Structure formats: structure tokens, C-alpha cells
UniProtKB/TrEMBL annotation:
Residues 271-298 form a coiled coil. Residues 1-70 are annotated as: Disordered. Keywords: Coiled coil. Residues 33-58 have a biased composition (Polar residues). The keyword Phosphoprotein does not apply. Residues 80-207 form the CpXC domain. InterPro entries: CpXC_dom (IPR025682). It comes from Caldilinea aerophila (strain DSM 14535 / JCM 11387 / NBRC 104270 / STL-6-O1). It comes from the Bacteria. This is CpXC domain-containing protein.
């Protein structure tokens, strides 16, 4: 459950950018929902600032290994103003991406998340009208997108020349090639991205089909509450509805939720429920999701790694076994640790059945992939939090900057702040430490304001010093107690048990028991 502050976390820890025009002038089709246009199950996605006044000690600590700090060409901090609500906020803007050095940027680039602005206040989004050079050495490709509007040919060539020089200065001499002196130029963003997709084996036809699918989703969502009209429209679009269609629908739902578009999210959810019943692809997906849920429910909260392995191998032997087992494994990610890998290795030593060995090897590969994704996500979150903190430190109005970056204020942001406070104290930078503490308090206040009343109550209960205080809090907030509240506590308890934090899990269990008696 996102937003939970561990006991004691509510206390203070003891321990230049590009100025862009207002608004967003380049439009990308379906930028935030684009996925690999292959026929893959959707289950994994769905279910499953002004000048600085801070001292050096107050600057965000640079973590070795964090992706945001290991980029060959780091993004610039750019200040943009939302054309919808006028909010000014800071975003990263890339000018060069070298996929040979930083391949982790590839998925974000292809899915339209690079140089994309999303307003933290109203959710309005748009792509920035900014030049971008991409180097893909595996295909001897250097391409540069320069928007057709706003610059003449001489300016365009000057921009491209500057980018080439910047690239050459950073690359070692042995990596420089002749093709880099004549990059392929693109005036159209979609053509630029289509070329990059070609290197992944994705054709323009596949991308066009995906764009047609997104257009179909948007059209069908407008008819979600009109069953008759929806049935007629489904006949028109039935050739587009497959698992990839559901994957795109799920991503659009996530995007609507993250942007606070509750009405759009409701329409998409209604549409999805209808499609699961009315279409062949939907019925197949629903059956697959039911089998995944059944597999996950077979695993007890205190199950051993051996028991989890047995259940996943059993699922793998059933119809659609690989999809079921892989999706169930993703749902059980906290259990996919080093001990689980040891269990797989031991089973491989004892097993001679070639099919079982194949399943075990695929499962081991999946676990390693999940672990790498988790590490990457943690590193990216830390880098993003450091960047947000830097923007706050450089802002003239700290509280305004915090509220502009409210969507980034979470446990990771607080942890980065705490690390910087500790570093400032170790360096005897008293003024910097005090300033950072004030930022910490303001960030914590904003984070708590964003919580639902139920989540605030859970945090208050977890930070209560004793059971008497907990009972008083429950009595004062009896109106918030419900079956859903009890279920949320149960899920939270299970989450901390899976993390092997038994003390906190037991505390939540005690709170759940007290709350249940008051229903």
C-alpha cells in the first residue's frame, strides 16, 4: 500500500536549466501508451528553477550506481508552465541519448515518455518541442529530430552541428565512426520513432495497427454506457480486439488514474468489463486471469520458498502454463529473492526430467529479470527524487516548488532528504541541515494532505505509542471503519510479512483485531 509511513518516519530524521515556452507544442500520437506491438498477454501490465542559495552540503547526494547519475548525456532541468492551469514546474529534457551506453532509456524513448511534460496539479500532458539526437551503435545509426516549426534551415543545421560536437566530445576515439558526421534528419516525430522501432523488429504497419487500436479504445470508451451502440461499434472494431488491445487499454487506464481523470478512468473500466464478456479475446483473457488468481491464492502468507516453487511449477504444467506462472510470479515478487533462486538451483540439481528443467530455467530467468527491474525501478525512483530535491533547493519559494512536485513526494523522496540531512550534519553544515529539515517537514505535510482519510488513520495508528492511543484513535474515527478498511489492513499485514518485518506485521494484526470489534 503506497503512502504508508513507518513508525518514527513522521519525525525529523536524526541523522540550470532550459527555459521552454509556455505550453507544449509538439503532439505525439498515443505517446504515453505505446508498447511493443507484439501479440503479448496484457495480464502482466494490468493485473498483475531560479538561482541556488543552498550550500554545497545541501545539494542532493549523488548515489553511485543510480541510473539518473550514470547517463552519458544527463537531461537538463527545464522549467515549463502548464497551458491548462498555469502551474510552473520542472521536468528533465534530453537532447542526446546514446542507446549503446544507456540502453535502459530505450523503453522510455519508444513509449513516448522522454521529453514529455505532465502537470502535477491538473494532469494536462504534452510532448515538448525540443530537438533530440539518438545514437544506436548496434545499427550504425545516428538520427536527430528537430521540429519543423520555429527554426529555419540555418538554425536547424547549427543545432545539429552542436549536437554532433557534443556527442563526439563524450565518446572515446575508438567509438567514433564516419556515419556520425552525417546523421539522418527527421522533421516528423512519428517517422523518427518508427525508425527506432524497426531496430526492434517492429514494422510501420504494426505501429499503425496500434494507433488504430488506441483510436478504437477512445471511440468505444465514449459508448461504454450505451450497450446498444457499444455492440454495434464492437462489430466494426472486432478485428482490432486482441490481447495487445487489452494491454493498451490497461495502459490508458493507468494513465487516466495517474492524471486524476476519474471520469475517463471510469469509462475505460466500464469498457473493459464489457469487453471481457462480449469479445472472444476478452473471454480468453478473463479465463487466464482467473487461473492466475487461483494460483496466487494457493500460496499461504507463510509459505516456504519450496512450496511457492512447487505451486509455480504445477501452474506451468497446465494450459497457458507459462503465462499463468509468469504472471503469478510477478504478483509474488517479494518472495522472488535469493533464497528462492537457491531453491530453483537445488531443484535443478535433483531433476532429470527435461521438461521440468526447462520450466525451472525459464523461471530462474524470469526471477532474475524481475529482480533487475526492481533494482532499476529503485534506482530510477532515487534519481528522480534527487532531481526533484535539487529543483526545490534552487527554487525561490520552497513550498511552491514542493507543491509543484507533489506527485514525486513519497517514501523515496523522504529517504533522499533524510540522507542529505545526515550528510549535512556530518559535514557540520548546520544551516544546510536546518534548511533541509524545514523542507522535510513541508514535504511530509504535503504527503499527508494527499492521503485519503483512511490512509492517514492507518499511519496514525502505526505511529501511536501504545494500544490505548490506538483505541482512542479508532473510537474518534469510527466513521472510517468498514470491511474495506479491515481488508486493507489485512493486505498491509501480509505485505510486511512477505518483507519479513514481523514486528510491524504483528502490530497491524493487533490494530486490525481492534478495528474489527468496532464494526
Amino acid at each position: 500500500m503506497s503512502g504508508i509511513l513507518l513508525p518514527g518516519q513522521e519525525k525529523q530524521p536524526s541523522t540550470g536549466g532550459i527555459e521552454l515556452p509556455k505550453g507544449f507544442v509538439r503532439r505525439r500520437e498515443e505517446a504515453s501508451v505505446t508498447d511493443t506491438p507484439a501479440e503479448t498477454p496484457s495480464t502482466l501490465e494490468a493485473e498483475t528553477a531560479p538561482g541556488s542559495t543552498a550550500s554545497e552540503s545541501a545539494q542532493p547526494e549523488r548515489r553511485a550506481g543510480a541510473r539518473g547519475n550514470n547517463l552519458l548525456f544527463p537531461p537538463n532541468a527545464a522549467q515549463v508552465q502548464c497551458p491548462n492551469c498555469g502551474t510552473v514546474y520542472v521536468i528533465p529534457v534530453f537532447t542526446i541519448i546514446d542507446l549503446g551506453v544507456n540502453p535502459e532509456l530505450g523503453p522510455a524513448l519508444l513509449s513516448g515518455q522522454v521529453n514529455m511534460a505532465i502537470c502535477p496539479r491538473c494532469g494536462a500532458s504534452g510532448a515538448l518541442n525540443a530537438p533530440l539526437m539518438v545514437h544506436e551503435p548496434a545499427h550504425d545509426f545516428l538520427g536527430v529530430y528537430v521540429p519543423a516549426t520555429g527554426v529555419d534551415d540555418a538554425q536547424r543545421q547549427r543545432i545539429i552541428g552542436d549536437l554532433i560536437q557534443t556527442l563526439m566530445r563524450k565518446l572515446p576515439a575508438e567509438s567514433r565512426r564516419g556515419y556520425m558526421l552525417q546523421p539522418k534528419e527527421y522533421l516528423d516525430w512519428n517517422r523518427f520513432i518508427e525508425k527506432l522501432w524497426e531496430f526492434q523488429g517492429v514494422t510501420p504497419e504494426m505501429l499503425r495497427r496500434q494507433r488504430d487500436q488506441v483510436a478504437a479504445i477512445q471511440s468505444l470508451a465514449r459508448l461504454a454506457d450505451d450497450e446498444g451502440a457499444l455492440n454495434i461499434a464492437l462489430e466494426r472494431y472486432k478485428g482490432l480486439i486482441d490481447r495487445q488491445f487489452f494491454s493498451l487499454l490497461d495502459r490508458l487506464m493507468m494513465l487516466s488514474g495517474s492524471q486524476g481523470d476519474s471520469e475517463g478512468l471510469r469509462a475505460l473500466q466500464t469498457l473493459r468489463r464489457a469487453l471481457l464478456e462480449k469479445t472472444e479475446a476478452g473471454r480468453e483473457l478473463k479465463a487466464l486471469q482467473d487461473r492466475i488468481e487461483e494460483t496466487v491464492q494457493r500460496i499461504r502468507p507463510n509459505a516456504t520458498r519450496e512450496e511457492v516453487l512447487n505451486i509455480l511449477l504445477d501452474a506451468w504444467s497446465q494450459p497457458d502454463g507459462e503465462s499463468v506462472a509468469a504472471s503469478a510470479a510477478l504478483a509474488l515478487a517479494p518472495l522472488l529473492d535469493y533464497q528462492f533462486l537457491l531453491a530453483i538451483a537445488e531443484r535443478l540439481e535433483r531433476t532429470t526430467d527435461p521438461q521440468v528443467r526447462e520450466h525451472l530455467e525459464k523461471l530462474r530467468e524470469l526471477v532474475l529479470t524481475v529482480q533487475e527491474q526492481q533494482r532499476a525501478a529503485q534506482q530510477d525512483a532515487a534519481a528522480q527524487a534527487q532531481q526533484a530535491l535539487q529543483a526545490v533547493l534552487e527554487a525561490a519559494d520552497v513550498e511552491e516548488a514542493l507543491r509543484a512536485n507533489a506527485h514525486l513526494i513519497d517514501e523515496t523522496f523522504l529517504a533522499v532528504l533524510a540522507a542529505n540531512i545526515q550528510r549535512a550534519e556530518q559535514n557540520k553544515a548546520t544551516a544546510a541541515a536546518q534548511r533541509l529539515r524545514k523542507i522535510y517537514d513541508a514535504a511530509l505535510q504535503i504527503m499527508q494532505e494527499q492521503m485519503s482519510p483512511e490512509l492517514r488513520l492507518i499511519n496514525d495508528l502505526l505511529n501511536a505509542p501504545d494500544q490505548k492511543t490506538q483505541r482512542k484513535l479508532l473510537e474518534e474515527n469510527r466513521r472510517l471503519l468498514s470491511r474495506d478498511f479491515i481488508e486493507a489492513l489485512k493486505e498491509l499485514e501480509q505485505e510486511f510479512r512477505e518483507r519479513e518485518n514481523r514486528d510491524l506485521a504483528d502490530r497491524i494484526k493487533s490494530i486490525r483485531a481492534q478495528a474489527a470489534l468496532m464494526l
